Amino acid sequence: MCAKLGLTIFRKRINIERRILRMINETMTLSDPLTGLTEKAVSAWEGHVHRHYNAQQVGNLIKLINEISVRSMVNTDCSRDVFSTDVLRRSAPLRTLCSKLEEALKELAP
Amino acid sequence: MATINERQWQGRVLQWTSELLKNYPDLPFSKVDQEFEVLVAGKTRRFNDLTLFDKQGKPVCVFELKPPENHVERVIENIYGRTCNISWYSYKRMKELFSQGHLFAWHIFQESNKLLTATEIDIVDQLGIPSPYSTAREDISSLIAILSSIKKELNLCRKNAVYEAGLIYVCLRNISLSASSFLSEKLDFSRYSPFNLPDASCQFPLSRRDYEILVQARHSSMRGGTPPKLNIYDVLDEQDAALKWAQVIGNLAGGV
User: Fold this and answer.
1) Which residues contact B53 (CB under 8 A, 6 or more apart)?
2) Domain residue limits at A9
3) Looking at the predicted structure, is the pLDDT value of residue A72 above 50?
4) pLDDT (tens digit, 9 = 90+) per residue, B147-171?
5) CB-side exposure of B201: number of CA atoms within 13 Å?
6) Out of A3, A21, A32, closest to residue B135 by CB
7) At how many degrees (to 10) do helices A3-27 and B136-156 cross?
8) Residue from A36, A43, A71, A54 nearest A108 by CA
9) Closest CA–CA distance from residue A4 to any residue of chain B (Å)
10) Which of A10, A40, A81 lies closest to B224 in CB terms?
11) B194, B204 contact by CB (below 8 A)
């Protein structure tokens, strides 16, 4: 892979992250927005979500965000020739996951 | 217990799989090969550890052989006393990056630490010196495009300020890294590379304190650290100053 392709993949990842973060942060009325789509960023943010919404309301949403996080990482990770066991699982394409996220967010919209 | 490295392990699995195919000719495979180049979606080159071919000689199944990540994490944490993130690169992929003079290859060459014992063969030693890095102009141009897009994104969604501030840091650091290839004596992979460029015409416009806030923002986006408290207008000002600085660097690189 050439260096240029590496940066193209980076830009692709940024576009995905911006789109997802915009969807979430614009809809959810939280003082602490989600700052990234990595597993660690989502996990750190989860605490804020649970303080404002009940677990039943956001359980599916968090699951979807985590799935999108894994999917976008696999789609754009330059290093990963490998699919570790936790990644190698049936998962819907990113577009389908985004539609599901949009639906889940609609339910939370004030 | 005798130790075995990843490449020896791969060789043994290759041999064992070849024997299986010879002993069971009814299996729908003709042969197995290692580090065979496969094109994914017609463009991305993958060199998987092992590839199985069907009777017509078409690659139909690939394998990657890796020690469990948690084992590697433990080894690294014991040595460095801190947690780590792991990415896997095959030998062929590394060879390709070294022959391209990719910045990642130079990073490994200049700054990597060995985890192996003295008797084990280190692939970085085997790969030698990477080819010269030659894509600074293109890389800086791509990073300037990302940096330019931040203003529009901030106006679209102010709640993404931490994410966008983190991107400013990534762009600044990588632009100065690329620029160090023609402005400094050696490539500068350090976090503070923008402050280290020697050319007086490209004096870095942000203070250390403001830069640290951008670093904190990136760490929040990637590592889940505490996000900094940001003023959106400060972020916009920093993006503006950073972009002007990046354009000067771009001109020094030969125009972008």
Assistant:
1) B29, B30, B31, B32, B33, B59, B60
2) 3-108
3) yes
4) 999 999 999 999 999 999 999 999 9
5) 10
6) A3
7) 10
8) A54
9) 7
10) A40
11) yes
For an interface test with A, give the residue of B156, B159, B175, B181 to mutate (most A CBs within 10 A). Answer: B159
Band of the pLDDT at B79, cuts 50, 70, 90?
Answer: confident
Please give the ipTM for the structure prediction. 0.80
Closest residue in A to B134 (Cα) is A3
Report the domain count for chain A: 1
Q: How many Å from the N-terminal Cα to the C-terminal Cα in chain B? A: 57
Nearest CB neighbour to A81, from listed B64, B69, B225: B64
B151 touching chain A per CB within 8 A:
no
Nearest CA in chain B to A76: B44
Residue B75 one-letter amino acid? V
* Domain residue spans of chain B: 6-63, 69-127, 136-252
